């Protein structure tokens, strides 16, 4: 089962901020919210293979892409810098920062982002769940992770069950058939619904007639 959800995005572009001096306005911009939130002074995409003009789900990857683009840009324009921020949909120029500061900021953002409770990867545009996770804070980045987590939870529940070697012991404990697999086998003792116990005094003829059940002899 999936629940629609837009994941956070960071968009990388080159900007020439209008009205700012050359040393502060030549910017590789990393803006939160995606391309719709970029400042309006965007330049043509020159290094798309480095991530220019791309939206990232991971802020660390976005900043590394911006740094790589900036280093290329500096070869022809030494005034290029990297800046990161949020415009909230308005025109809002960012102040550039040193690479180590930007990397630290991006890592902090990454650490705070929601992640899949199965694989630990960042959540994307959709989140997934399963029956055992309903009503909890658990969320999964894809259907596979939800199904794998469900399987592990079911197996953990089975592993925690008290096990018995015989139907007799299982019934004596009062747990026979209170938990069964899809084929009707008891998860405590491994016998199906209708398993019977042959007590002392039952004839071989009775035993032979009961062909549909599992049987156990009295010790």
Describe what this molecule looks like in 3D.
The protein has 219 residues and is an alpha/beta fold. It folds into three domains: 111 residues, no CATH class; 35 residues; 51 residues, no CATH class. The chain has six helices and eight strands. It has a four-stranded mixed sheet. Strands 1-6 form a two-stranded antiparallel sheet. β7, α6 and β8 form a beta-alpha-beta unit. The radius of gyration is 31 Å and the shape is rod-shaped. The two termini are 50 Å apart.
Distance between the termini: 50 Å
The largest sheet, given as strand count, sense and whether it forms a barrel, is: 4 strands, mixed
Number of domains: 3
- Uncertain segments are 198-202, 205-219
Shape: rod-shaped
Count the beta strands.
Answer: 8
List the helices and strands in order.
EEHEEHEHEHHEHE
Q: Output mean pLDDT.
A: 82
| Rg measurement, Å | 31 Å
Count of alpha and pi helical runs: 6
Roughly how much helix do the residues carry, as a percent range?
Answer: 25-40%
Strand content: 15-25%
Query: Taking strands numbered 1, 2, ... along the chain, how are they ordered across the largest sheet?
Result: 4-2-3-5
Decide which structural class fits the backbone. alpha/beta
What tags apply to this protein structure?
two-stranded antiparallel ribbon; 3 domains; 219 residues; alpha/beta; four-stranded mixed sheet
Task: Provide a short characterization of the protein structure.
The chain has 219 residues and is α/β, with parallel strands linked by helices.
Please write out the topology:
Elements: E1 2-4, E2 10-16, H1 22-25, E3 26-32, E4 55-56, H2 59-74, E5 81-85, H3 99-112, E6 126-128, H4 143-160, H5 167-172, E7 196-198, H6 204-209, E8 215-217
Parallel strand pairs: 3-5, 7-8
Antiparallel strand pairs: 1-6, 2-3, 2-4
Helix pairs in contact: 2-3
